[in-house]
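Appendix B. Chain record.
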Amino acid sequence: MRRVALLFVVAFLTAAALSAQPLPPGKWWRRPEVVQLLNLSDEQQSRLESIFRSSANDLIDLKAEVDKQNIALRGELDQPQLDRAAIRRISTKLNDARGRLFERELMMLIDMRSVLNDAQWNRLRNQLDRLNRQQQQQLSQNPSRPTLTRRFAPPSPAHAGEGSRDPSPRVRGEGAAERRMRGKP
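Structure tokens predicted for this chain:
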């Protein structure tokens, strides 16, 4: 029974964290306006600092692994001959790295949340919701901001290689029938 209760608590916290806004960047517990808004005590600030410091090295390493896998994936996607198996391996590593980073961030969030009382947590969440709405309004007013789809747009024909009949990359292991289905010679 105790095991079921623990599993429920972990599932609930995970679901709450997934729907929750991430914490503000940086050492938000040291910002005077946040200290005042949440009425943080010196002891709470010290505990939050300690949690951050104990998590920082892990987060740096995990973020670096995500960055490395992103670079590897982009490098593989930039090849004139795409290797589906290599791309799949790299994407699996990237997803695993993102999962480990998310899990570590979640554990830090849970630790930080345990330092705050319910009223402080609710005030912080309300402030984050307000900031999120402001960001959404700014984004809607500035549609020229780059989007994710532009980041992964196919290369222009100028980058496809000189004298190439087909500027789209060929996929290793792909036969003529598959290329015809994609509309390529």
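Further analysis of this model is presented in Appendix C.
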